[in-house]
Amino acid sequence: MKNLSIGNKAVALLLVLFALFPLVWPTEEWLGFGINILLMCVLAIGWNISGGFGGMLSFGHAALFGTGAYAAAMFQLQAGFNPWLAGVAGMLCGALVGAFIGAVSFRYGLRGSYFSLVTLAFAEVLRVVASSFEFTGGGSGLQLPLVQQWSSLQFPSRTENYLFALGLVILALLVSLAIKRSRFGAYLAAIRENEDASKALGINTFRIKVAGMFAAGGVSAAAGVAYLQTFLYIDAPIAYGPVMSIEALLGATIGGAGTILGPVLGTVLLHSVGEIVKMAVGSATGINLVFYGVLLLLILRFLPDGVMGLFDRMGPRRGRGATGVSKEKA
Questions:
Q1: Which of 256, 295, 255 is nearest to 273 (CA)?
Q2: How far lies 304's CA from each of 56, 61, 165, in Å?
Q3: DSSP string across 226-256
């Protein structure tokens, strides 16, 4: 622990608290709240792979989350797939949608705010499609039958659901870490810093960026699959609505985009403070979006590197090898 930065220690402590959460707050309501935070952590980690590592800022990440959930539901209800196999298929569909969005955008040279708007448009198109056709359940959404068996990717108790979600967060973090430490991750970072220079150095930026969207899509879709299997229901406003996209973006940005652990810390802070705001001012319609907007402005103004960046500045300076966010994000 001595060699860890303050931010890494904070997140390590947070993961320990996550593990103890079912023992301290074993009620259905609190466990449901904890599960929701964990699934949003996975979604934020997925956003961070493309937006944080590669600089491909998505405003419509719900397109990937929703595709995973809807695909898994349809594979089970209409094709008779085993839920575990349907979950894997849902993740693959989310990854392919991410790659498709990337391929269409990058083939025409779209980047920056133009790419962000394309992702937003894709999410909206998928929302309309999901709410308009019978095979997607239309406005009623899709409901899974209650089975509560491990073989059906349903769990007898909320505690087991919670532990499954926690395991998914850890797995997503390991995938994120593996990407960041690989040559692929180095290429993504180079493209984020200067895409034109990366091209000049011989990096196939199109292929790397599409692969980054593929990886981000798979992780984000995993959150959608887990959401479906936990709550046994999905509809278009939940799956493809703006709230999912905003929470993915904010979780990673608040914690520290481009860091490994930032999306987890940022998502926990976002939801914890959000609940405090609800208790203080009530749960009026749209109050969460107002809160998200104000919080984003404050973070961009005062903590452009996120909370992990703040922790990094608070930590001991170790000269040129110090782990600065602007140099090597932990």
A1: 295
A2: 17, 21, 29
A3: HHHHHHSEE-HHHHHSHHHHHHHHHHHHHH-
**Range 203-211 contact pairs with CB under 8 angstroms and sequence separation of 24 or more:** 205/106, 206/106, 206/107, 208/54, 208/184, 209/54, 209/56, 209/102, 209/106, 210/99, 210/102, 210/103, 210/106, 211/99, 211/184
Pick the CATH number of 6-321 from 1.20.1730, 1.10.12, 1.20.120, 1.10.3470: 1.10.3470
pTM: 0.89
pLDDT, tens digit (0-9, with 9 covering 90-100), for 207-216:
999 999 999 9
CA atoms within 13 A on the CB side of 4: 11
Residues of the chain with pLDDT under 70: 1-8, 10-11, 280-286, 315-330
Distance CA 281, CA 288 (A): 11
- Counting beta carbons within 10 angstroms of the beta carbon of residue 143, is it exposed (0 to 12), middle (13 to 18) or buried (19 or more)? middle
Q: Looking at the DSSP assignment, which residues form a beta bridge with residue 233?
A: 143
As to burial, measured by CB atoms within 10 angstroms (0-12 exposed, 13-18 middle, 19+ buried), residue 97 is: buried
The closest alpha carbon to 263, from 4, 16, 50, belongs to: 50
According to DSSP, the residues that pair with 142 across neighbouring strands are: 234
CA distance 330 to 312: 9
